[in-house]
Amino acid sequence: MRRLLFLPSLALLTFAPVQGQMSRDPDQVEIPMQVYENGLYPSAFALVRVVIGGRVANLLLDTGASIHVLSSDLADGLDMESRGTLEALGASASRQAKRFQLPTMYLGGVELHRQEAMLMKSVTIFDRIEQQHGIEISGLLGAPAFKFAPVTLDFETGNMIYYQPGGFEAPKNAVVLDLSTLHGIPVLEASLSDGDPARFIIDTGHSNPLLIHGPYARRHDLLRRKDELFRYGMQGVFGLTEAYMGLLPSVFLGGAEVTDLPATVVSQQSQNGLAHNDDSAGNIGLALLTRFRVTFHFQANKLYLEPRNDNQAIPSDFGVSLTIHRGRVVIEEVGRGSPAEDAGLRAKDRIVAIDGIPCPRDVTATIRLLRDSQGLRMMVKRGRTSMTVKLEKKAYLPYVLPAGG
Asked: Percent of the chain having pLDDT more than 90?
């Protein structure tokens, strides 16, 4: 079975100095942040609304990008100054790209000055998100937006919070990790199961919990059980790369341990993309970061992770990928060996109700309703036939490594 995964992150080898300020003078500025989920396996992405040159746009938060990215449609007509070219390193390949200096970007009560961006004419990943959620995405808000002041991503309240640099106080009871940069993007040390610490990119633009790069996977023989794992064509900004999905028994982020974590492991194929080089072991993605209240403090070289009050283990979900068709939520794909497959669900089934509650006309709301459901009885319509099926909550992803290594 092959399927596309989202991986919009970019590591760009040229990085521009950050200029920004809070346009008012409070201790902090809160900016609304929308978090969406995709389904099949735990995956999420976050959007914020910005204003550039008088134009309002939704940008995907991507700390794995060392420069902002704009769609050609958004950039058309903006007063931008050419800054030459750069080498853009995507998940599966690299390309030369033109870069430009943007007019002032407004992010709520925050002004970002002299920011640089690259342009992309068409991004398959954005098109897919737009199809699933009906949201227009016009680019990426990269790591430079996080560098001039401490920034918190509060996933419980749905806010991106900027603090005055001099007035920021480190959160109590947080796990504190040393933060450094690689090609302008944030990295820290983490360890898988009982392994030695390795350098991982903090990548809010990667929707899944964890991505493990090919060279690290090869050194640690993480694909020795690949016949039991799920094989994918993982979609990056510049093309596909082969990858496998399974569970890791544990991942350690300093003093924080996450167990039974779904992970994507890139195969050993020789390519020149970020997921195939040895600069880092992998990417820590948004579906893992949403378990915490995350604060980036580049000036102090620290990352703070505060467990959420409503924190729960990352589920393996129910094995359904959802999308919107004619204004209704339908099943796009059913995972092999999943509760959805066991219940007899198929692609193109339309979800009518969950535990007697009418299905929302929204993918994220439907996924959350499934997770909160107690009885998990789903009414679906297949063609002209209606049926009710019972979904059993269970862990169904195979392990990349057995428990204990």
From this structure: 39
Q: Any idea what the CATH number is for the domain that residue 10 is in? A: 2.40.70.10
Q: How far apart are CA 280 and CA 32, in angstroms?
A: 31
Q: What is the domain range of residue 20?
A: 4-166
| Greatest extent of the chain over all pairs of C-alpha atoms, in Å | 63
Rounded CA-CA distance 367/372 in Å is 9
What is the per-residue pLDDT across 343-374, written as a single tens digit (0 to 9) for each?
999 999 999 999 999 998 888 888 888 877 76
Report H helices in 122-279: 124-133, 214-219
Q: HSE of 320 in the Cβ direction (CA atoms, 13 Å)?
A: 31
In whole angstroms, what is the distance from residue 245 CA to residue 271 CA? 20
Q: Distance (Å, rounded) from C-alpha 260 to C-alpha 404? A: 12
Q: Find tokens 């302008």 and name the residue.
A: 184
Query: Both 99 and 25 in a single domain?
Result: yes
Q: How many helices (H) and strands (E) does the chain have?
A: 6, 33
State residue 274's pLDDT score: 64
Nearest of 306, 185, 329 to residue 255 by alpha carbon: 306
Q: Supply the pTM of this predicted model.
A: 0.84
Residue 110 near residue 21 (C-beta atoms within 8 A): yes
Q: Answer positive or negative: Cα dihedral of 49, 18, 288, 300.
A: negative
For residue 85, what are the β-bridge partners? 98
Place of tokens 């420069």: 67
Q: Are residues 202 and 58 in the same domain?
A: no
What's the rounded Cα separation, in Å, for the pair 102 and 79?
Answer: 7
Quote the distance between the C-alpha of residue 381 and its chain's center: 31
Q: Are residues 29 and 137 in the same domain?
A: yes
In a shared domain, residues 150 and 207: no
* Tally of domains in the chain: 3
Is the CB of residue 143 less than 8 Å from the CB of residue 66?
A: yes
